[in-house]
Amino acid sequence: MKYAQSIQRSKNISAATIVPTHVILHHTSGSYTGSVSWCLDPISKVSYHCIVARDGRRTVLAAPYARAWHAGKSSWQGCPDCNSYALGLAWEGDTYQNPLSEDAIASAAEYLRPILKDYKIPPANIIRHADVAPGRKDDCSPAAREALLSYLP
Ligand SMILES: [Zn+2]
Question: Ligand 1 center to residue 1 CA distance, Å?
């Protein structure tokens, strides 16, 4: 593993588990450490599965099969409640204002590669929060998704 990965389990997940068939890409808008703290705080009732910093460090907050609370009210191709079938990955910052660093993309790819393989998730099933909650959410930038796909499988 090239990038440092810290594992800290968030309580902002459901008791029931999931079989992830999709990945939803987010950005945090805020800082890396602030976003990790927010996801670890039970008050927030939100958590991604993984947050990737601009320098490529990352924190894993939930196992891939955990139903983490990242997408909120959402729907994709007629299937509501994306948290029940999608893993959430977030990049630090605002991907519209600051294009992703190479380290941030490569680290996300490093984290996702074995998960995509294990769960047989095709690249087409890697989508953006904006895709599943249009009008409500705009993260992440289409360019960020394209950059990630160029690093996969
Ligand atoms: Zn989001």
Answer: 26
For strands 22-27 and 86-91, give the pairing. Answer: parallel
CA of 68 relative to ligand 1 center, distance in Å: 12
- Domains in the chain (CATH in brackets) are 5-151 (3.40.80.10)
Within 41-151, residue ranges assigned H as helices are 102-118, 129-132, 142-151
110 close to 2: Cβ distance less than 8 angstroms: yes
Q: Could you tell me the distance, in angstroms and rounded to a whole number, from the CA of residue 83 to the centre of ligand 1?
A: 12
* Cβ pair 2, 109 in contact under 8 A: no
End-to-end CA distance of the chain: 16
Instruction: Tell me the per-residue pLDDT of 8-57, one tens digit each, with 9 for 90 and over.
Output: 999 999 999 999 999 999 999 999 999 999 999 999 999 999 999 999 99
pTM for this structure? 0.98
Amino acid found at 79: C
CA of 25 to the centre of ligand 1 (A): 7
Ligand 1 midpoint to CA 127 (Å)? 11
